[in-house]
Amino acid sequence: MTVDLTAVRGRSFRARRPWGLWAAVAFLAAAALAGLCAPLVAPQAPGATDLMNSLAPPGTPGHPLGTDSTGRDVLSRVLYGARLSLLAPLGVVLLASLLGITLGLTAARLGGWADIVVSRGMDVVFAFPGLLLAMLVVAVFGPGVVAPVCALAVSYTPFIGRLVRNAAVQEGARPYPEAYRVMGFGGLWVTVRHLLPNIAPMLIAQGTLSFGYALVDLAALSYLGLGVRPPAADWGSMISQSQSAILQGAPWGALVPGLAVLGTVVSLIVVGGHIGGSIVKKGERT
After folding, report:
1. Per-residue pLDDT reduced to its tens digit, 35-76
2. Residues of 131-151 as b/e, b for ≥16 C-beta within 10 angstroms?
3. Beta bridge mates, 60
4. CA distance 118 to 284
5. Are 86 and 215 within 8 A, CB to CB?
6. What pLDDT is recorded for position 187?
7. Phi, psi at 62, each rounded to 5°
8. Which residue, 159, 152, 193, 153, is CA-closest to 176?
9. Domain locations along the chain
10. Three-state secondary structure of the chain
11. pLDDT confidence of 273, banded at 50, 70, 90?
12. How far apart are CA 127 and CA 110, in angstroms?
């Protein structure tokens, strides 16, 4: 039997060149850079109106991606909207990670009734839809950014808390934590110095996926008018405000931010999946 060396080389070349991963990373970097450099590269102020050029198509001089129904430049609003659209999900992930790591490590280290109480509490929160919780919080505290971010962080905490708890229990069953304790090192030092770094890749993978979910949830709240308040721009509110223009044959006001949301979420899934796959392969080798 002969082996097609050309095909083998092609497969190995593709394995060494994860083009999809690099494209996803490049897209995420471009989105972050766009939000950071929006004041420098945006052709117009995000709230500047040009009623003489309302619903101008892409390619109009001064408006590369066209304008919305009030004459606001779509490109400028997408660039400025990247700030809130990316920073708010980041706040959700960071707050959920802080709560989840604290609760997960507490349950794993103390065990017994503490483990039961924390685990059942996370199960209760896990059973409650995050978007519904955010809508209830917004109904009490009013639209904005802070209330939805806090509500979604609470609803995402069980995902990270359960992961940390299970990983900490597995790591605690290995020989090295007990060996360090015999050597006189405290449990907190062992947790911070060794246990957390060992489970960090799993946390990064979960945080990447949670970022994408949070972005979609926050965009949905803004679309419903429960998130960012005008005149501030984010991608969800842009889609909502340009929805009526679609029926007038001007879909670009909603299409451009919609593609930004889609591209960001798909890129996050690709990156998170790659990190998760790397963890699985590492576990199989060990």
Report:
1. 999 999 998 888 888 888 888 899 888 889 999 988 899 999
2. bebbbebbeeeebebebbbbb
3. 63
4. 30
5. yes
6. 63
7. 85, -10
8. 193
9. 74-285
10. CCCCHHHHHHHHHHHHCCHHHHHHHHHHHHHHHHHHCHHHHCCCCCCCCCHHHCCCCCCECCECCCECCCCCEHHHHHHHHHHHHHHHHHHHHHHHHHHHHHHHHHHHHHCHHHHHHHHHHHHHHHCCCHHHHHHHHHHHHCCCCHHHHHHHHHHHHHHHHHHHHHHHHHHHCCHHHHHHHHCCCCHHHHHHHHHHHHHHHHHHHHHHHHHHHHHHHHHHHHHCCCCCCCCCCCHHHHHHHCHHHHCCCCCHHHHHHHHHHHHHHHHHHHHHHHHHHHHHHHHHHC
11. confident
12. 24
Q: Are 76 and 69 in contact (CB under 8 A)?
A: no
| 98 token code pair | 């802080």
Q: Count the residues in the chain.
A: 286
Task: Give domain 74-285's CATH architecture.
Answer: Orthogonal Bundle (1.10)
In tens, the pLDDT along 21-31 reads 899 999 999 99
* 38: Cα within 13 Å, side-chain hemisphere: 21
